[in-house]
Specification:
- The strands form three sheets. A six-stranded mixed sheet has the order 6-7-8-3-9-10, sandwiched between helices. A four-stranded antiparallel sheet has the order 2-1-4-5, covered by helices on one side. The chain has a four-stranded antiparallel sheet with strand order 12-13-11-14, with helices on one face.
- The protein starts with a helix and ends in a 5-residue tail after the last helix.
- Helix 4 (126-136) crosses helix 5 (141-154) and helix 5 (141-154) crosses helix 6.
- 36% of the residues lie in helices and 26% in strands.
- It is built from twelve helices and 14 strands.
């Protein structure tokens, strides 16, 4: 935990988000944002829509998740909010400042973590990386050095502070990214897939850190495709797919929606039996190949019906599991259409 002397007075926990709040008081405001780019690798070149009509508000002190499969548009939205990209249409503000017209002020008030090797210098040590980025935020030498030590301890890298970053594992680099994102003491922190490459213990430590940031009153926007992670750390989540916002709800509401989906896998299933299963109510997809069938359902009663039919036909090699989030999204979007917001 960063000491009060290092971070200033601890901010009070933000009140519960109230839909319809004022754009002047929300920490992040996205209004009808679109982003189109030209794919010059294709022949002929073509326009690709990365975001279309996205509107979103995040309250001060809220931990908000952007949930979606790879390629959904999550990173594009983060890049717009961090002034790396400009929106093609619409507008976005962070702490009341426009990301296009007041980009310098926005950058001073945010911390960002994009992960991977971007933003880290492999030939420098972990401590030197934090010194460099702290200097970019204008921190003076004595405060910068003290803050770097606190952050290295906070993310569990104090014992590797003098090691070159190019010797770090992917998970260690990701933890250093988190420290880098906090070095400027930002009021808004934007994290793009923050636990990628972390082992389970480090991921749990990360969740505890997000709880600390919430208690400090910081606003956190994080992207993930892991519903369990979103449920553990977020107040609300927005589901995004193919550049469009599908819905924004509390984690409890989205968890209930997604928990109804299950996958049943069985071997030695003849084609006729697979067709019987496909006709059952609540079955949304069936894949059958070489006697192996994968059945996806959207409600627990459908899963029970599938298991009953398979067992009645003498099929005993059966297992159940949750489909991955990308598959759930395909069913959700296919059933409800892109007009849902």
């Amino acid at each position: 935990m960063v000491s009060n002397a290092e971070q200033g007075p601890v901010r009070q926990e933000a009140p519960e988000y109230a839909p319809g709040g004022s754009a002047a008081t929300d920490a992040i405001v996205v209004e009808d944002v679109g982003r189109v780019y030209v794919d010059r690798r294709s022949r002929p070149t073509r326009e690709v829509t990365a975001l279309s009509g996205v509107s979103l508000r995040v309250a001060p002190g809220e931990v908000h998740g952007l949930l979606g499969p790879n390629g959904a548009g999550k990173t594009t939205l983060c890049k717009i909010l961090t002034t790396t990209l400009e929106p093609t249409t619409g507008s976005a503000r962070v702490l009341g400042r426009d990301v296009t017209g007041q980009s310098r002020a926005v950058r001073r008030s945010i911390g960002l973590v994009f992960g991977g090797d971007r933003g880290l210098y492999g030939r420098l040590s972990a401590r030197e990386n934090l010194w460099f980025w702290g200097a970019m935020y204008g921190l003076r030498r004595s405060r910068l050095r003290a803050r770097a030590e606190v952050l290295l301890e906070r993310v569990g890298l104090a014992d590797r502070a003098d090691s070159r970053v190019d010797t770090f594992s992917r998970g260690m680099k990701q933890r250093l990214h988190l420290a880098r994102g906090l070095v400027g003491d930002p009021r808004v922190l934007i994290l793009d897939e923050p636990t990628v490459g972390m082992d389970p213990v480090a991921a749990l430590d990360f969740r505890a850190l997000i709880g600390e940031l919430r208690r400090e009153g910081r606003t956190v926007l994080l992207t993930t495709h892991d519903m369990a992670e979103a449920e553990a750390v977020c107040d609300r989540v927005s589901l995004i797919d193919r550049g469009r916002l599908i819905m924004t709800e509390s984690t409890d509401a989205v968890g209930r929606l997604l928990s109804g989906y299950e996958r049943v896998v069985a071997d030695d299933v003849p084609a006729e039996l697979a067709r019987r299963v496909e006709a059952l109510d609540g079955v949304v997809a069936v894949r059958h190949e070489a006697g192996r069938v994968e059945v996806e359902t959207e409600q627990p009663s459908a899963t029970s019906a599938v298991l009953s039919v398979l067992a009645g036909a003498g099929v005993h090699r059966v297992s159940t599991a949750r489909p991955d989030l990308g598959e759930v999204y395909l069913h959700l979007v296919g059933r409800r259409g892109m007009a849902v917001t």
